[in-house]
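Here is a protein:
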Amino acid sequence: MAKVFVIDVAKCTGCHNCQLACKDEHCGNDWTPYAAPQPMTGQFWCRVEEHVRGSIPKVKIHYIPKICNHCDNAPCMAAAQDGAVYRREDGLVIIDPEKAAGQRRIAEACPYGVVYVNEKLDLPQKCTGCAHLLDHGAALPRCVDACPTDAMLFGEEAELRDLIDGATVLAPETGARPRVHYRNVPGFFIGGTVYDPDKEEVLEGASCRLQSGGKTWLATADEFGDFWFLDLPAGVFDLAVDRKGYRTRAFAGIETGAGKSVNLGDIALESL
């Protein structure tokens, strides 16, 4: 049975331990026939990406570690010649550091941008899943072993099936069928702060009703006047903000998507 990675974004704190461990394992170390040394700069076979949503003071941040997806339908394999990219029995996809020299099309074919070109060696390179360690008795790749929060898991697909169910993969539309699964990737949000401009105080308990495509979300302003609608899909929304004794404020055409969440800022309600 092939191996898979499962990454829980909700558990990732952005500590970059996985990224540093990968560098430590592969920079300056020649693991041929698995991989030639990774350059000190310019390549991150494990790269932690920071995603910032919203605007001050309503900001949410999450981190997504990106590695080779060891795809079932790997575009890099299709682009390679002479068996320069192959899949092991455990599912890990390996670029042969001898056969792949000069085949830059291997890097160009990756839809995830995780195959790099070593300019000095004229060689495409990427994460190997630390196959050299697994073949010598290690249970885990260095990135997974270094994770202090268990945000990164690695193992047999059957053993991790419960975690894979409901998870997502990056760019499923490519048809590459990745074997790196992500859990709890947050959606978009819409938030704001409700207040009374005359009294110059926030309005706790204001009712907020968000609608899009026949679906409704409800939220209530907290003791700071803040409300949040979390994990929203990309789309266009209408919002109504109500509180007893005040006129309703309506907002139409609030748009999320393309990496954009929305902070509506301070919302003043006019008293009746």
